[in-house]
Amino acid sequence: MTNDAVTARLHPLTALTAAACTAVITTAAASWPLSIAVALAAAVLAVRSGAARQVLAAAAVILVPLWLSLLVLHGLFFPEGHTVLAQWGPARVTAEGLGFALEVGTRTTACVLVLLLFSFTVSVPDLLAALAARNIPPQFGFVVASTLTLLPAVARRLDRIRQAQETRGMVVRGGLLARLGALRLQMVPLVLALMDDASSRAQALEARGFASPGPRSSYRDVADPPLQRRLRVAALVLTAAAVTARIVASWPAGGTA
Fold first, then answer.
1. Residue 237's pLDDT is what?
2. Average pLDDT over residues 43-69
3. What is the average per-residue pLDDT within 97-119?
4. What single string gives the DSSP state of each residue in 120-149?
5. Are 216 and 135 contacting, i.e. CB atoms less than 8 angstroms apart?
6. Would you list the domain boundaries of the chain?
7. Which of 92, 100, 90, 89 is nearest to 76 (CA)?
8. Do 200 and 153 form a contact (C-beta atoms < 8 A)?
């Protein structure tokens, strides 16, 4: 199934609403089984849409450093941990620390995969046309266009950086520390290159009038079926209910401190 065949079924605003609501509900639930289920669902949809390689490559750039920091900070130095599994001087591996790292890591992984899936599968021209048809401020559309056109370049840029470093003789051997050093050498040029790309794309989009105020005309007509409009409203209501339930559940019982 091609990317166009999958995304053509959903209005861009329906896809945006689904991604945003899924991320918010997953965050509000704070349940690692739900986060894993959402992450697996996003991965399956990425495979079916033909965007798995781009989504997973971009997710790896974001999530690998995150997981490493979570394991170091919370897996080894979690102050509220009491069940000690292993200890090396001041570093203690605790069950509570690993559980906290698992919860935060899976939740962030699910949100990142869902948002990247939307970014790599949505039609940016259709999304901008849909926003313009609803009189969304052009500055918002400008930011959306800049972000979505930048994300697909992450995986390609990282692959080119790795190939260039290997051509210059960088061979990663050894254990975890050597690989972390190689990852740092790739992240620095990647971030600098992305900042330069973002500046160039922002200037190009601004030159074409994406940030200009005043009335706007669109030559694209994006069909918005009534069923999808109702689904968007239902998703927003469900999300608001989930967030409200989470806030109420976090209140102290009986109003006591």
1. 96
2. 87
3. 89
4. HHS-HHHHHHHHHHTT--HHHHHHHHHHHH
5. no
6. 3-246
7. 92
8. no
Given a cut of 60, whether residue 233 has pLDDT beyond it is yes
Q: Three-state DSSP class for 14?
A: helix
Distance, CA of 199 to CA of 195 (rounded, Å): 6
Q: Which residue has the higher pLDDT, 232 or 97?
A: 232
Residue 117, C-beta contacts closer than 8 angstroms, at least 6 positions apart: 19, 42, 45, 46, 49, 51, 55
| pTM confidence score | 0.70
Q: Which of 118, 125, 122, 143 is nearest to 58 (CA)?
A: 118
Instruction: Give residue 245's identity as a one-letter amino acid code.
Output: A
What is d(CA 28, CA 35) in angstroms, rounded to the nearest whole number? 11
Residue 178, number of CB atoms within 10 A of its CB: 12
Rounded to whole angstroms, the Cα distance separating 31 from 35 reads: 6
Distance CA 48, CA 43 (A): 9
Q: Is the pLDDT of residue 254 over 60?
A: no
* Amino acid making up residue 193: A
* Inter-residue contact 24 to 243 (CB < 8 Å): yes
